[in-house]
Amino acid sequence: MNTLTIKTCPLCGGTHLERTLTCVDHYATGEAFHLCRCADCGFLFTQDFPVEVEIGRYYETPDYISHSDTRKGLMNRLYHRVRRYMLKRKARLVMGESHRKEGRLLDIGTGTGYFADTMQQLGWQVEAVEKNAAAREFALAHFGLQVRPDTELGGYADGSFDVITLWHVMEHLEHLNETWETLRRLLTDKGVLIVAVPNCSSYDARKYGAYWAAYDVPRHLWHFTPATMQQLASKHGFILSARYPMPFDAFYVSMLTERHMRRSCAFVRGLLTGTLAWLSSLVRKDRSSSMIYVFRKKQL
After folding, report:
1. Which of 185, 183, 294, 228 is nearest to 12 (CA)?
2. Predicted local distance difference test score (pLDDT) of residue 64
3. Between the chain's N and C termini, which has fewer beta carbons within 10 Å?
4. Does residue 148 come out as left (phi exceeding 0), alpha (psi in the -120 to 50 range) or beta?
């Protein structure tokens, strides 16, 4: 297997990299992967992860819900119920932050297409890209969405979109800095970039350590905090306009973590931790299990 060893921090260019945690792939292989932190800026990332052309097999499991749409098990059924609510909330957020009831939207890493379909039904002109072929086929069969492979992302013209969304996608993308440059190019000058990612400085991440399910190695390559996300955006010509906690994520991630730890009463234990995480995020929203960031272009 070909792996990528990172020798310089992709955020600040520093070379003082320290091994921090060792995490296990609980979904597909049971393999262990190391997380490293940049001592200069604090950015955390998965080290020696499979290169892009080989990482696909780590997604090939029916339990990976964003691609398989599985309803197997209590937690996945709960995921679907929460998703219906969150789709409406995401749509309201897009329209509120963009000050538009319709426009041109690009959803990157659309998965099985639920969000792209929701926005299209609301009258938006939607383009969607997705790496996984099975997920693209699902979106076509269930929603009639013509989802493009991610290799076609660079083919869109400059300033093509009023809104670009990445819902739990940024952490998967190998070419991190190149992606941010593409996002800036594709967005209109007054456009809005919306990025949702797990927060590795959250209450539940601190509680569970290496077992935290949202580390999700090796599928998650980058592990963001509010500080490193804002620093990365600034590096590529964006300013932070707003940020929002994702309170339900703590419940799902905590339940999943408890299951991975093979602890009894995983649902109840996860529910308790999720509640404590939610209460913690009420005091400080930067402790939320996942965060939604809204960025706009810096005006030169």
Report:
1. 228
2. 56
3. C
4. beta
